[in-house]
Each structure stands twice: as structure tokens, then as C-alpha cells.
Amino acid sequence: MTADPVQFVTYCGSKANRVVPVKTTRSVGPNDCLVEVTHSGYCATDTYFTAVPMGLGHEGVGVIRRVGPAVKQHKVGDRVGWGFVHEACFNCKQCLSGGEIYCLKRKIYGFGNLDQGSLATHAIWDENFLFPIPDAMSSSVAAPLMCAGASVFGSLQQRGYKSTDRCGVVGIGGLGHLAIQFAHKMGMEVVAFSTTEAKRAEATAFGADEFVVIPREPGTRLSGIRRIDHLLICSTAQPDYHLFLDILEPRATIYPLTAFEKDVTYPHLDLIFSGVTIQGTMIATKQGFIDMLKFCVQHNIKPANQEYPMTVAGIEACNTDLKAGTMRYRGVLVAEGADRSSETAIEPEANTKAEAEAEPETVTEITVVVDGEKNGTNGTNGTNGANGKAEV
Ligand SMILES: NC(=O)c1ccc[n+]([C@@H]2O[C@H](COP(=O)([O-])OP(=O)(O)OC[C@H]3O[C@@H](n4cnc5c(N)ncnc54)[C@H](OP(=O)(O)O)[C@@H]3O)[C@@H](O)[C@H]2O)c1
Ligand SMILES: [Zn+2]
Ligand SMILES: [Zn+2]
């Protein structure tokens, strides 16, 4: 049974670049589940959207409180998680060949379902993009796996690796510290590349066999490093690709996960002569999520979390720590015990109106046009072209 509509609170960005509690009113559709959010990880991608009036967060975990009449995969009381992709058509070439995350009718974070996110009291999602959390895994451990974990695991799994390969991980943050653990447990030798010498001991504990401080002086080359087969770029700033091409095995693969950054220039001739692949990837497929969760339980892979209360103050503190570079290694917002007594949720129109009036504190390159949200696509479908601007 559904008793619509449902009202809950979603923590949204705002033009003033502050987190605002906003009332969300939604129906539980036939294939939907109402989830009470208990935990949410906080990804660097969220920092790009805090100046946009939309629901924040895409590393959610919670408990199903209501299901639509056609829901088959879940039941009330189940613990589930979700990530970057919310919907797909399941009837197109991509969907029918296991590439539903690349469906041209998909809805993804920041480009569809803008009225809700994982930083919230509740959310309503299509059952197809809710993933059962294994009993042996805590919800706090599961949350960062919903984007950070799934993105790095999915990259390696979708493109293939051998346990005799060498895997480089550039940038040891939320994605990077999980990438080291995955690659190590997949049997690969792992080389961590970091701008922060102080992360050496922890990177080694995560499973890195070698730790290299990325040289900052222009013209410096990397040397004395055995060649690498897979290079996961997990840094928030684009690295110098010239530097890394020097130490790649011919026919190696680069996975440039860094999002919403300026375009990069690759040394074109080096690519041709070395047969290196630059492989775009975005999160894990549905099957990839299931495999990842199983793999984490089997190999005791866990994110290193810093917890904050799921409140405006907690989210803003988490955002500040992440941007300051002091996060070790993933912020997780926790609903239980969070004191929201001083928070008053506003109507969505008030946040949009405030947007029109506020002076932006931070300039963001991302433009989200809510009007077009009905179909969730903009022709480029969240792949927003060379100028870094997107319309939905
Ligand atoms: N494609 C996808 O599917 C996908 C999914 C999720 C996230 N992302 C993107 O992946 C990136 C990483 O996300 P995250 O949540 O892991 O971020 P994060 O926790 O902030 O980690 C990023 C790491 O990058 C390094 N770094 C920070 N500032 C840097 C700078 N100015 N120059 C060079 N390195 C710097 C730091 O590592 P060191 O101290 O070790 O250098 C930092 O810990 C973001 O751009 C995010 O938007 C992409
Ligand atoms: Zn993310
Ligand atoms: Zn499709």
C-alpha cells in the first residue's frame, strides 16, 4: 500500500553556498521504495553542488519504510544503499547489455531527481538502484562504498585486470584509499601517488606496496618506478599526464576519475606510440555493486571514516574539512543522535527564491536548470561537454 504524498526533509545547496533544510513532497510510485536515511558518505563531487539549490548527497544508506505495489526486490525493513545513478530505461542497447549506468535516459546525481539526495531524513528511489547491504557490513562502512567504492571497483572490474598487474592510485582521499584496498586485495601490486608525505604510513596500511610523493617542480620526471598497468586518477585536481606517461607500461590503461575539473591535455604522440588507453568510467553497474559489496565482506575492506551528525552544522563541518584537505579519509553523516531541534525546513520555492536574491559566495561552473528535470536528460545526459556547464 502507498499513502501518498510523503513529506520529508532534504539538505540542499543554495546560491549562498550554505546547506539548507528543505521540505520535499513526493509520491511512492509503483516501483519505488521510501527509505529512511541513516547514513550518507560525503564525496568531493558534493562540494561542487553546495552552491546549487538541489538535494545533496549520493552515498546513501538507510532502511526501507514503505514499498510501491510493484516492488519485487526489496521489502519493508530491508537495509539498502544507493549511489550516483537513480534511474535507467532497462530497454535500450546500453541497458540490455549490462551498461545501464550509461543509458541515454538515465537519471544521475546533479542532473535528475534534484529534489532529493542522501543528505536527508528520507528519500524515494526506484527499486532497481537500491542495493541490499550485507548483514555482515555496518551502514557506516557501506555508505562510502556507494560512490567512492563503486567508482574505483567498477573501473577495475569493467575493464579487466590481472592479479600480476601493477596498479597506480593517484590522490589518496575518499576514492584513493579504497582503490588501494581493492587493488591490493585483487592481488595487484599497488603504487600510491600522493602530494602528502604524511599519508605514507596509512597508504601502506591500506595495502600500498610503494608510496611516491608526486613532484611539484615543473620539469621534474618520475623515475625509478617499475612500469604500471592501471592508473586510477583519484585526485580532485588533474595531474600532469606527461609525468605519468613516463612510467606506464605500453598498452596500460588510465582511468581519469577526477570530475568537474578543467579539460586536460594528453601528450598525443606518446599515446599513439605506447597504445595507452584513456578510459572514461562512471561508477559500478548494478552487478558491479553486488560484486563489490560481496568482495568487501570477503576481504574485510572498510573505508576509514570521520563521522559527523546529519544536521546542517554537521554537513557544513564535513564540507569544510574535505575542502581543507584534513579528511581521513571519508566523511560520513550519521542520522542517529543528530540534534535537528534548531532546524526549520523551508519550502523548495523559498530556496529557489533565495537563490535569485542571494549574492553567490562561491562561483560554480555548474548550472542546473530545474525546469527541464522531467525527462532528466539534456541531450548530453549529464555528460556536460567541454565547457563544464550542464543544463538538465
Ligand atoms: N568518475 C567518477 O565516477 C567519480 C566518482 C566519485 C568522485 N569522482 C571525483 O573524483 C575526485 C576525488 O573524489 P574524492 O571524494 O576521493 O576526493 P577527496 O577525498 O578530496 O580526495 C582527493 C585527493 O586528491 C588529492 N588532492 C587534493 N587537492 C589536490 C590538488 N590541488 N592537487 C593534486 N592533488 C590534490 C588529495 O590526495 P593526496 O593528499 O594523496 O595528494 C586528496 O585526498 C573528485 O574530483 C570527484 O569529483 C569521480
Ligand atoms: Zn561521488
Ligand atoms: Zn536504457
Keywords:
392 residues; alpha/beta; Quinone Oxidoreductase, Chain A, domain 1; Rossmann fold; seven-stranded mixed β-sheet; six-stranded parallel β-sheet; 17 strands; 23% strand; globular; disordered C terminus; binds NADP nicotinamide-adenine-dinucleotide phosphate; binds zinc ion; ADH_Zn_CS
Q: TL;DR of this structure?
A:
The protein is α/β, with parallel strands linked by helices. It has 10 helices and 17 strands.
Structure write-up:
This is Enoyl reductase (ER) domain-containing protein. InterPro entries: ADH-like_C, ADH-like_N, ADH_Zn_CS, CAD-like, ER, GroES-like_sf, NAD(P)-bd_dom_sf. Belongs to the zinc-containing alcohol dehydrogenase family. Keywords: Metal-binding, Oxidoreductase, Zinc. The chain has 2 domains: 231 residues, Alpha-Beta Complex (Quinone Oxidoreductase, Chain A, domain 1), CATH 3.90.180; 127 residues, Rossmann fold, CATH 3.40.50. Helix 3 crosses helix 4 and helix 3 crosses helix 8. The longest helix has 21 residues. It starts with 5 loop residues before the first strand and ends in a 35-residue tail after the last helix. With 392 residues, it is of the alpha/beta class. The site of one zinc ion has 8 residues, from helix 2.
